[in-house]
Amino acid sequence: MADVARRAGVSMATASRALSDHPHVAPATRARVLAAAEHLSYVISPEASRLAGGTTGRVAVVVPHISRWFFASLLEGLEAVLRESDLDVLLYHVGDAADRSTFFQRLPARRKVDAVVVLGMPVAEPERERLGLMGVHIVAAGGQVESYPYVSVDDLAAGRQAMDHLLFLGHRRIGMIATADPGQPGWPAVRGRTRAYHEAHADAGIPVDERLIVEVPWGGAPGADAMAQLLGLRKPPTAVYAHSDEVALGAVRTLRRAGLRIPGDVSVVGIDDHPLADLTDLTTVAQPVREQGTLAGRMVLSLLSGEDITDGVTVPTRLVIRGSTGPPRP
Amino acid sequence: MADVARRAGVSMATASRALSDHPHVAPATRARVLAAAEHLSYVISPEASRLAGGTTGRVAVVVPHISRWFFASLLEGLEAVLRESDLDVLLYHVGDAADRSTFFQRLPARRKVDAVVVLGMPVAEPERERLGLMGVHIVAAGGQVESYPYVSVDDLAAGRQAMDHLLFLGHRRIGMIATADPGQPGWPAVRGRTRAYHEAHADAGIPVDERLIVEVPWGGAPGADAMAQLLGLRKPPTAVYAHSDEVALGAVRTLRRAGLRIPGDVSVVGIDDHPLADLTDLTTVAQPVREQGTLAGRMVLSLLSGEDITDGVTVPTRLVIRGSTGPPRP
């Protein structure tokens, strides 16, 4: 605070009043103090600014994708809760690495929100530092981000539900179509879902054949390509575990084009329970997506009302058996 | 302005300075003037506030749905353009009628944006009045809203592309699955796409059989139900024209369950070119959705920079022939 006051050429008391939005500060003085504070990356402690009652009524939501069902559904659930409490949602889409870097660099200067919600994306160490500079509440939804209160599914458990189902049906040669998001490296969902594949094999006493693992970017077309790669093996899998329904639906297309029956020749299981999984009769592991957004919204409200939340919330997933899985051919 | 000044107990000059964000106004005075102006629903003319350079750097985006692909894609395109110009996006989801009414009632009091973009929804007369009170720029995207500059497809033309394709293939008994959005009555897309069905029949000299028209809420499951209804007719259609791909995919499920071949027994065409239409080999009429959001964003930037835009922009659609349409059985 002393540095801020010195830089702005005002007393400590004035600097403090300016930063806490006290009414008896001339606009020009306040601007000078804010500029100095920003320059020095001075952080108003959330407690202090809350005590001073200075709230913007706005929450920033940061998403890596908007048009994908998973992210849009999280956002829908979150927005509904915040709007009900008359909080406005500022939407920030950060796509590739360059985008992210610019966004997080500028973030502290935008000190104009009461909280930040990070939807379905990992937060790297330098980004955590920039977020920290904002001095506002931070919540993560749609993924475990250990540094913040989060709402998520247990990706390892979800993956195990899919894998154990295939193993129970008698499959021993199971392919995995793992998804990588090039713009969001280190996303824990990928790690958990991949680990499930390996642990399920270990528990069943089946060695993993690395040729059965294909990693592709998220999406239907990449899923279709991955399935083609698996069908090109001398001994293709009898079942395929895909990290997401959209990827699984791509695999289904390739199988259909190859004239193979599902599940007669090859079983397919996804994760998500995308609305079209039901329509396409895809077996999947359902996760409550909108609800994760809702819970994250409630977490924001609790934090803003002064409650202390540090833990994450894990919502349960469940296996939904439809017509795309069955026992392997005898 | 005189009323505002009187109510706030200040001179006209002071009231004007306060409303135009002039720096030499004490915060308490400004608050009083703003409160008075809000009470009187005083509208700062956009021209005046633009000349005074007073901008919030924020654009409000109003959407009737977030998690549906069409709306999320529009939003993604729009957000990208606005963010590039360092404008923040305030997201407002208005769902049912009660929601809409509350939202539009409160809107003028939220005079804290430079523009409002209405995504994929009709704007009723009382809502237009409330929007007008805000005195900011308004743009519509993803639908023709004649009162505002808009970006849209020509729904009549899109519907004709689908219908003319079926007629060209030789179909004479064509069903239509029309979609109604109960929360958004009067949506022009529905009107245009329905009119296309009737006009195509008239041009081909084929009388419309009203039993072949089913109207359902948007979605896959309603589409499946609609198809079942059509299959319950003594003489079912040989082809089905659905107002959207997701509805068409519902119809496809019902046909598959009934053991019917697509397109051997029944052809199906949708509208949109949803990413899963490609994966499921669905013939459709493609509309550039993200691009409509992008164009709307550019429209906002032009308006904010003082350009005068009053016309709408119509982006072209195109027929994408895949595997779900073919000639009727001889």
Structure description:
The structure is a homodimer of 330-residue chains. Chain A starts with a helix and ends in a 10-residue tail after the last strand. About 4% of the residues of chain A have low confidence. In chain A, the strands form 2 sheets. In chain A, strands 2-1-3-4-5-11 form a 6-stranded parallel sheet. Chain A has a 6-stranded mixed sheet with strand order 7-6-8-9-10-12, sandwiched between helices. Chain A is an alpha/beta fold. In chain A, helix 5 runs parallel beside helix 13 and helix 10 crosses helix 11. Chain A folds into 3 domains: 43 residues, 434 Repressor (Amino-terminal Domain) (Orthogonal Bundle); 124 residues, Rossmann fold; 133 residues, 3-Layer(aba) Sandwich (Rossmann fold), CATH 3.40.50. Chain A is elongated, with a radius of gyration of 24 Å. Chain A is built from 13 helices and 12 strands. Chain A is 45% helix and 18% strand. Chains A and B meet through helix 5, strand 2, helix 10, helix 11 and helix 12 of A and helix 5, strand 2, helix 10, helix 11 and helix 12 of B.
Set down the secondary structure blueprint.
2 copies of one chain form a homodimer.
Chain A: H1 2-8, H2 12-19, H3 27-39, H4 46-51, E1 58-63, H5 69-84, E2 88-93, H6 97-106, E3 115-119, H7 125-134, E4 137-141, E5 150-153, H8 155-168, E6 174-180, H9 188-204, E7 213-217, H10 220-231, E8 239-242, H11 245-257, E9 267-272, H12 275-279, E10 283-286, H13 289-304, E11 313-315, E12 318-320
Parallel strand pairs in A: 1-2, 1-3, 3-4, 4-5, 5-11, 6-7, 6-8, 8-9, 9-10
Antiparallel strand pairs in A: 10-12
Helix pairs in contact in A: 1-2, 1-3, 5-13, 8-9, 10-11
